[in-house]
Amino acid sequence: MTSVTFIHSADWQLGMTRKYLSDEAQARYTGARVDTIRTIGELAHSEGAQFIVVAGDVFEHANLSTRDVVRAYEAMAETRLPIYLLPGNHDPLGPGSIWSGEAHSSRPDNVTILDHEGPFDVSPSVEIVACPWYTKHPGHDPVTGILASLKPTDKTRILVAHGMLDVLDPDKQSETLVDTAALRGAVRDGLVDYVALGDRHICWTDPETGAINYSGTHESTGPREKSRGTALAVTLDGSTVTTTRHEIGRWLHVDIHRHVSSMEDIALLESDFASITHKDCAIVRTVLTGTLSMAAAAALDRLLEAQTHVFASVYKWERHTDLVVVPDDADESLLGLSGFAAEAMAELRELAQQGDKTASDALLLLYRLGATS
Ligand SMILES: [Mn+2]
Fold this sequence. Notes:
Layout (H helix, E strand, L loop, with lengths): L3 E6 L13 H24 L4 E4 L11 H13 L4 E3 L25 E3 L6 E4 L2 E5 L25 E7 L17 H9 L5 E5 L4 E3 L6 E4 L14 E8 L2 E8 L4 E8 L3 H12 L7 E11 L1 H17 L2 E4 L5 E4 L3 H7 L3 H15 L3 H16 L1
Parallel strand pairs: 1-2, 2-3, 3-4, 6-7, 7-8, 8-10, 13-14, 14-15, 14-16
Antiparallel strand pairs: 1-11, 5-6, 9-10, 11-12
Helix pairs in contact: 1-2, 4-5, 5-8, 7-8
The structure holds manganese (II) ion.
């Protein structure tokens, strides 16, 4: 058996939109997610890879514009390597699927849709067995059913599949969980040499076999993904599997957690923002808690406002944000209120101390008006 090297990628979800991106950032995000296909091509050439597999969810949904589809195909053509695309739960086969639309007449010759179980001959010594999704809700394990039909072969056999391994999600009672034990058995029996998985957006190698892998997405799709996008370079040589993780994405989702109760804390928060590179391609979700004086709260607002111009997006994770503004003596003397205004302020202060958000916001507004007048 001769050795084979290829790139394993998955979950491109091309055409994805995110509600926390402005139109400007969304346009760059969409473009980058296509452009990273070219980066995968460059990686493939530098690794001496013979082909690229994408293990499901190539497109975000069935109703993408023709532009989204043809631009993706154009980038795939430029890789000048065979690319095998698996339909997943976002882009299943079947009536009205994205694979049958008019835009697909532009599909380049180097791209093969894994539109049935296979085998697909990659070369005289390598074959792909595919587990495409035919519907968004198959109602059963979409992967391991195919194993029973496989006969031993002298070829190197790569299973390309999409779904959630049961060992990674033991509490989830989904009908579509994939039976990990069955896949491990197929690897141990020599029925398959490698399992290229998509669906979980993580770069993961099965600790028991080394041959069952998730590549992760090529570009981060959400805050649960803790790095820029990844792809795996895979070499199969006899029964030896070598996988190398490559960080190829440009976009990053990052959470900043910080307790802020003083100007010093706000300075630390500022350094959190400063430490992130490629800020124009970084999406920051903040989780801020604490009790702030009005002066500190105003400084925090100014800091956050300034970051929105630098980063692709900065937004609060509302559910976990808990900031209360309570005036301190310095705030009150700066405002120099008297009479009715001072009484209103005292009342608001009492409510804010009890955790009343509206009172907090009103105080902050009062402070801003007062401090700038
Ligand atoms: Mn999926």
